[in-house]
Fold this sequence. Notes:
Blueprint: E1 28-34, H1 43-55, E2 60-66, H2 87-103, E3 106-111, H3 118-126, E4 135-142, H4 148-160, E5 164-165, E6 170-173, H5 188-215
Parallel strand pairs: 1-2, 1-3, 3-4, 4-5, 4-6
Amino acid sequence: MPFLGADLMGSSTMPETDHHHKVGVETFRLAVIIGGVREGRFGNVVADWFIRQVERRDELDIDVIDLAEVDLPFEVEGRAESEPHDPGHAVSSAFTVRRRLDAADAYVVVTPEYHDTTALRRLVDWHGRPWQAKPVGFVAYGGTTRGGYAVEQLRPLFADLHAVPVRGQVTLPYAWELFDEDASSWQAAATEEAAQAMLDQLAWWAVTLRRGRERHPYAA
């Protein structure tokens, strides 16, 4: 059974075009990282929609890492804190996140506009080794730039850590106008097609790179 982030799943009816994998296709673990942490964020709605797209593919195990729910080992301006910051607990939480990142074969980052990517960029820097020789995809949302500036900043950051950013991505302009209250998209056909195309690329890279790491440990 997939490992799912709490309170992120909604009920949905799966269409006849679900991307079920063929017999013999290897499964892999996908970590979906929700990068926005500011109070009033829209990222959890976007993530809920994307996770539904992932659920249409049964070759994936999902682990949702919501940075707003993780006690980060560093301060982030504008973050809504539910309890006082405890440095000791934050370090313990960081090791837990590290284990989850290590266990993943691929990552998808759900990111807001570039001005709200501090927590995500610091997380990537803090945990350098897990990203090596693993693919990364992006789901970005924002205003007229569709979150594209954030992705432009994140691609070289991941590449510097020897990750493999895939070409396909999902960009959602004015995302708060594209979804209703239960995270159903008003432009489902176009957005779902982009999501599945990106997941196709991630699936190929995830399995191929895992086989490579198993044969020859990656040396950065």
